[in-house]
Specification:
With 94 residues, the protein is of the alpha+beta class. It has one domain: Ribonuclease Z/Hydroxyacylglutathione hydrolase-like (Metallo-beta-lactamase, Chain A), CATH 3.60.15. 22% of the residues lie in helices and 31% in strands. It is built from 2 helices and 6 strands; from the N terminus they run E-E-E-H-H-E-E-E. The strands form 2 sheets. A 4-stranded mixed β-sheet has the order 1-2-3-4, with no helix packed on it. A two-stranded antiparallel ribbon has the order 5-6. It is globular, with a radius of gyration of 12 Å.
């Protein structure tokens, strides 16, 4: 479990490492793939400063380790990978 506030003060995400492969279940850190490209898009009742920090930390590790990533609100199957595009990021479903 990795503390990742923003959605709520106690929000966490899950990191699983097996045989050198890594996967993240981001919970509510992202609600839609477009939020990966727009890190400041949050519901009005969330903490955008903490949320952006949590998103940036996850994105940096996920891209560096070519991790599988999924999130709570996605229709199945929602596994994908994140990539660096210019100064931002992009979500690509598998």
């Amino acid at each position: 479990m990795i503390h990742a506030p923003g959605e709520s003060p106690g929000h966490s995400l899950i990191r699983v490492i097996v045989g050198g492969e890594i996967a993240f279940f981001t919970g509510d850190l992202f609600h839609f793939p477009c939020e990966v490209e727009h890190l400041d898009w949050f519901s009005p009742d969330r903490d955008p400063v903490l949320g952006r920090r949590s998103r940036e930390r996850l994105l940096a590790e996920a891209v560096a380790r070519n991790a599988l990533v999924t999130y709570s609100h996605a229709p199945f199957p929602a596994w994908g990978r994140l990539s660096r595009v210019g100064s931002g990021y992009r979500w690509a479903l598998l």
